[in-house]
Every structure is written in C-alpha cells, then in structure tokens.
What does this fold into?
Amino acid sequence: MNVSGERVFDAPRDVVWRVLNDPESMAKTMPGVESFDIHDDRRWTANVKIPLGLGGLKMKVDMEKVEEREPEFAKLAVKGHGVGAMMNMETSFTLGDAPEGGTSMAWSADVKIAGPVGSMGQRVLQPIVNQQVQHVLSALDAQIQQATQSE
Amino acid sequence: MSEASTTTVAPEKVELQKGWGGQSVKRREDKRLLQGEGVFVDDIKRHGMGYLHFVRSPYAHAHITRVDVSAAEAVEGVYGTLTGEEVAALTDPFFQISSVPGGNIKDYSLAVGKVRYVGEPVVAVVAETRELARDASELVEVEYEPLPAVVDARKAQDADAPVLHDDAGGNLMWTGLYSWGDFDAAVAESDRVIEIPQLHFHRFNSTPLECDGALVEFNRGVEQWTIHTNNQFPGFAAIMMGPAMKVGLDKLRFVTQDIGGGFGNKITSHPQLVVCCLLARKLNRPIQWTEWRTDFHLSMSHGNERWFHDTQVAVKEDGTLLGFRTKALDDAGAWLRYEPLGGVIWAQVTPGMYRWRHCELDFTQVATNKAPVSPNRGYSRMQHLWFTERVIDIVAHELGLDPVEVRKKNYIRAEEMPYETPNGCVYDSGDYARMLDLALELIDYDAIPVRKAAAKERGKVLGVGIGSTLDSGTNNFGQSRLINPELQFSGNNEVATVKLDIFGEIVVTLGTTPQGQGHETTAAQVVADILNCDLDAVHVRAGHDSYWNSHAGFSGTYASQFAVTGLSAVKGATEMLRDEIFKLASAVFSCEENLLELADGGIRIKENADAFLPFMACGAIINANNAGLPEDLDVTLNCRYVYRPPFQVPDVETKTGNLTLTYAAQLHVAVVEIDPETGWYEIVDYAAVDDCGKRINPQIVEGQVMGATAQAIGAAIHEVYEYDEDGNLLTPNFYDYHVPHALDMPPLATGAIESPSPFTPLGTKGMGEGGGAGIHAVCAAIQDATGVVVTTSHNPYQRVWEMLQETSA
It folds into this structure.
C-alpha cells in the first residue's frame, strides 16, 4: 500500500528537520505509543497500540534511519511485529522552502502488512491508514509549533 | 406425464419388498445426523489427548531465518511443538506425481527454510486445550526475510518473476501438448476461424460444513498409527504418507464414520496428518486437530484457476463446429499436492457434448504464491467444460446464431452412443438434445421473448443462458501416465464385504468414505433386491476402516464413482453371498439349486413353501452349528468382492485411451434479470436436468443436483479467492467469502432422464459434480441479457456493472 502527501509547516526548515529527527518528538506524534526506547541516533524501538478495530493492534516497531541528507531528505525503514500482523514500511520525506513561506514536506510511505490483518485488504486498511496519517501530521504540526515557540 | 419434477414434489410412496432400486426410500443416515448422533472426527475424544494448532506464515514468500519455540513450550499446559527442521529430519519429501520440472520439488508437511503462501503451516503447537494451543502459538518466534511474491499465473514465467522452488529451476511445473485430429485441416475446411484472446476461470472452492481434522493415536507396542480422520481418499493419503514417514502402509490405519462434506477438498490433508502422526509419537499422547474455518480458507485445497489464451475455433457459417485450438494456463498455487493431475483430468471431456473432431490444447501449469489447489467438485473438467460452453456461446454471438440451435446442431446424438471422442474416451450413453428440450420446457422458453419485453418496460434486461457438464466418473488412474510416464498406476477398484451373521443379520461393509451421499441407503437397496428381502434386514456399517480388509488401493469417495465402483462391489459381494446361500440350502435340503428361491428373508423350495430356511438358520448353521456339514461345502457366508472397471492403460505417445468409465450429463438453464443501472441481478428462473443412468435412489440424486446448483450459483456470483499483489488472501472468512444461503437460491425446477450405462453392472453412472453447468448458464444468461461477451466465470454484480460501463463507453 502506498500513501503519500505534502504538508506545509509554518516554521523554518531547520526546526522542522530537528523535530523530524528527534525520536522523542516523533514518539509524541505516533498513535498509541506505550513505550519508546532510543538505541542510538539512527535506531529506535516503540511499543504501540494502533487503534484498529476492537481493542487495537499491539505491535513492537523497530525504526532505523537508513538515509539522510540534512536538512532536506531522510528515509526510514520500519519493521513491526504483533499478534495477527507484521508490518514492513519504508518511508521518506523531502523538505523544501514553501513558496508562501514556511517549510514544505513531501512524504511517502510504502506499507506492507502481512498476517490476518493484512487479509483485511487495502479497501479496509487504506481508510484506517489515512486517518492515522492525519493524526500524525496534526501531532507533528503541534510539535513543530511547540519547537518554534520555545526558540 | 412429464419427466420433470420440481423441488416441491410430494414424497413418493414406498412399496414393500420388491424392487428397492429406483425408489426414493428414506436415507437411513439421516436419523442420526438430524438428531445430532453422528460421529464426526471432532466428536472423538481420548484420555490425555493434546490439541494441535498450526503457526502459519503471514508472508506469501519469505525465507525463514529463525524459529524459536522455547517461549511457547515454557507455558504450563503446552505439551510440545514440531518444527519444519524436525520434519525434514524425520521424514522424506512427499512423492511427486509430476514429471520434471515439477517432480523435482521437495514438499514436506511443514515449511522447511522457506514459506511460499500466506497460511502455510510453519510450526505445530500441542497443548491441553485448543485455546491454549492457539494462544501459545502466538509465542512461537519466527523470523522471516520477505521475498517478492508472484500471484498472477500469467507472470509466473517472466524472466524477473520470483521463483518458488529452486529445485524446479523456475515456476513451470508441468507442460504438455495435446493434439487430436488435425486442427489445420479443420481451419482449411472452415468458413471462419473465430479468435478468443483470453478466458478466465476463477479460483474458488466448495465449502464443507466440517473443516478438516484428525484424532491420531500411536500404538507404541506395534508402532502403528490409528488415524481417525475425515480425509475422503485414505488410499491416496496412505501412499503419500507411508513413504514420507518411511513406514509400511499397514502401520497407517484410517478410520472414519461421518464426514461433513468433502467435495474433493479433503483429499489432500495428508501433510497435516503426517504432522499429527509425528507429534503423537513424539509426545506419546493422542493428537487432536480440528481446522479453523479461516485456516481452511487460507490453506486447504483451492479449486484450479485457469486461463485460456489465443483460442481459435474453426467453424462453418451455419454454426457447425470443426475444431478448437487453445493454450490453457493452470495456476497450481504453491505446492503440487494432487497436481498436476488437473493437467490430464480435463481430457476426459475433451469435446464436451459436441462432435468436433479436431482439438488441440497446450497445457501449462505454474506455481504461484497462493494456497495449493486440489480436486474440487467437478475437478478440472469443470474448467474445461466452462471453456467449451463459453466457446459455443461466443461462436453463436459472432455468427449471429441462436445458442440453442448451435448446440443442437453440434451435440453428439443419442444414436451415436457409445461415442468415441477424438482422444479415445468413450461416452457410454446420453441424449443431450432431449435434455436441453426438457430444461427449456421447464423454464417455459417460448415465453422468454415476452418476458424480455416486459423486463425492458420495467427498466431491466432479461437473458437466458444454457450450461452443461459431463460428470465423468470412475477414473482410470492410468491417465496419470500421460502426466508422468514413469508412474505405475492404472485402472481403479473398490471393495465391499457382505456376510450373513449368526442370527441372520445381513452385514455390509463398504470401502468408501461417504460424506453425506447416502451410501448406507443405496447399498442396502442393492443388497435387498438381490437377496429378495426387506430393506430393514440389511445392515450397512457406517464409515470406513482400512484395518479390517475392507478397502482396496483406490478406496474412497471422490470423482463421481460410488454408484459404479461402490455399488458394483456391493452387487458382486451380495451375489457371491446369494450363491453360497443356494449352495448351503441345496446341501441342507438335498435338492438341486435350481429348485430353490429366495423369499421372505430366507430360502425355500419353490414347490414346497414349508421347506424354508430363514437367513437366521443359514447364519447359525455355518457360524455356530456346522458339525456334520459336507467337507466339500465351500461356504463361509462372508463374501468379499473387489470391483475392477474394464480399463486398459492409455497410450502415452498419442495421449489417447478410455480415461473414465461413465458420463453422467447435466444441463442447466438460468434466466437472469439485470438492473443495468447498478449491475445487480437476480436469477428469476432456473432449471437443472440430470441424466446419470439408472438411479438407485432418485431423491438422493435430486439432492446432489440441488447441491451442485448451489455450488454453481455461489461460484458464478459470490465465491472467489481473491489475492492482493503481495499474496494476502482477501477473502479468508465467511464475511468476505459468501456461500449461498437458502435465500440465495432461485426458483429451481429439476428434471431427469435415464440413459443406463451399458458399461456398468447396474446401469448406473457416478454423479454429483454437475455444478459447472450452472456457472456457465449464469455467464451465458448475462451475455444474452447485456449483449456483452462474458470472458470470466465469476461475475459478481460490480463486474456486470463494469461490463455495461465498458460497453457504453
């Protein structure tokens, strides 16, 4: 499943870059994070409970930054494992200067979900993923605003 | 009086004594089944047994890099586990039917090193409850390294396609060219060659009420397994399991009583049975496995998906069919569990019901990252007959002819029976044109133009479609040599024993494994007729047990054959018993056998009714009071008969021969009414006419006809195993995989004619696999209503809407 989009943040590019590359800030944007471990500046692990159907889907998610060109591009490989689902995701974002000020972020993700949850199929999962992406982006917006104000 | 009947006919009057065959006597199995007193595999319990749950692959294609069962085994109540590595150490790969390259693949009962479809069993966990086994299986850690998957058979042979089996060197499993007659000569003789680029028969399955299962015990003292299972072809399971487990077949005892539906799906549960056997030995306790419904959908024996490409049909302008040429591409899924037999089974019905003499079919079977396929009610013939029927309607469409007339022009005629097909099969009997007339009468075909006009006024479109199948039954297993000349199978056999017990009970043991077909009833009818006794005097043992000499190599219930193989064995054994009763009575009465007759549950002197020896006396004399009998009286009153159909080994070079013994025929007509705005449609009338030769029990036959019709409607409209591009099955449960309910069934009229088979002892033919007729009837009706050529067997409402949109665009 491929999801992608573009978002403009009312903040300088270096602030956006910093938030996006700060594991603790990113943890606050992710849905249902129950715990978060930082192994080094490239590898993090999160235990999440994704709100999916009854009770939610518990998953241990390993993230690794596999490519980086500061302050415009980064790519992460994400592997998740939980009861009833396995997730593999490759996601990247590209930052640029927005024409009307602020920072633009073009992002994309290739999500593969295996297991019984995967059998629900794209027609069921796509709206759920889209909804979660909107939550992440709104939370990210809040994090960036907070970072801007604290400067 | 019309030969047609409807589903609402009144019960037929049952006459006493004379002529049980041909009567719709009540099924004797139904009392226990309706009262919940049947014994299915999940009803069998043993002290200390462990419940098995399979850990299954979430990936369609991946290397297994690590398996750790320690956390699961540490749970209290978990008895143990079995991994693919253990299976590889303890067993050999299953014997492969295929020649190379498919013959090179290594198939074990659990995934070894690699998984090849979503749902493939990877590890087995056994615990004290079913729920605990399922929970503990979540603690088994399996690390995978995902690989790209191939799910579209058409891409399986691309240069960059992921390869499932390195041992096979690619995804090609089997290929063979079948060519009979001279298609090029047919083209030269033809007025037109009609080309059909692509036709697609979709992947679906039949749905038994009961999923697969087993209760397996290991007798350590004699090193023998007793396998209580609902596998429907124990003879096949045994020859797969014995060599893999490196044991003789006497070590594998198969037992079954009631089975909740089979449809062919339950032929290939041998990998799971091997896992149960290994665990029963390893853990020294009985192992119980009952498959979950989702697991059944994910991994158990889907029906063959098939593409037909570049079809050419040589025809005359008047609709005379001369020949066809096509390329069939068959999707085997990940493993060859019964395949590639589908690559030859279709050839039993090469020309369908039609007289064309020049047929060429280039068959290719490939592996994909989907569940393995195996027989499914109408196995392989259904796909091919759908193709031939589709060709007829497309030809009629192209030539502007009436599909009814094209059929009648090309049907094999009743007076041509027995009819030898271009590939040497012999259709035993039948009258297809008469069947069509009867089916059209049942839906009041003459009124169709008026109904079409009326539908149009209501903003709907109405269409009528015809579909037929030949339910070829009683396989000649010699056809497997056309797939792999090195195989040493041929012919067929089935066994029955009939004995007269000490109190005169007539006891019948069958080699078959009935799954609801009423074998106990029809066998009793045959026996009672031969012994001229009351039906209730005949006791037919329920179920199957391979241990006590009442099975043969091909014993089982599959491929439309019981009415021939099973009942012929019953007939043979009963006639042996009858002859022995005559011999005994002749000795007792000191008279010639020709002065005796069977009557009233015994044997008597024709001219002296007082000289009567009831069966009870016969049984008592031989079994309990035999002193003083003549030494040369060779009578045991315990008779075993093996029926062997009259087959020859097919010719491997020309790929010709009699591949099957009987040809029951089904002719279905559907009338559909479509809402062109939405594509939603309804089957407003439906007729099914069946000819299976002599019917022993017409009501049982009619039940099979109704079941086959439901199978057809499900497949045509609702049922499909759909995969996404990553190999996830999107329809693994009843929410997404809709099996027709009673309310989905259309008004159904049934009719029957009887063309007794000249090749079988009772004039019977196997039957029950006629559902393919209905799949095509729906396709043809949609084509008639919309005017759009239908190219796929599965036409849900959205597909019809898309077709209409494509046309209007």
Q: What stands out?
A: Residues 1-17 of chain B have pLDDT under 50 and may be disordered. Residues 41-147+211-259+265-299 of chain B form a domain with the Aldehyde Oxidoreductase; domain 3 fold (CATH 3.90.1170.50).
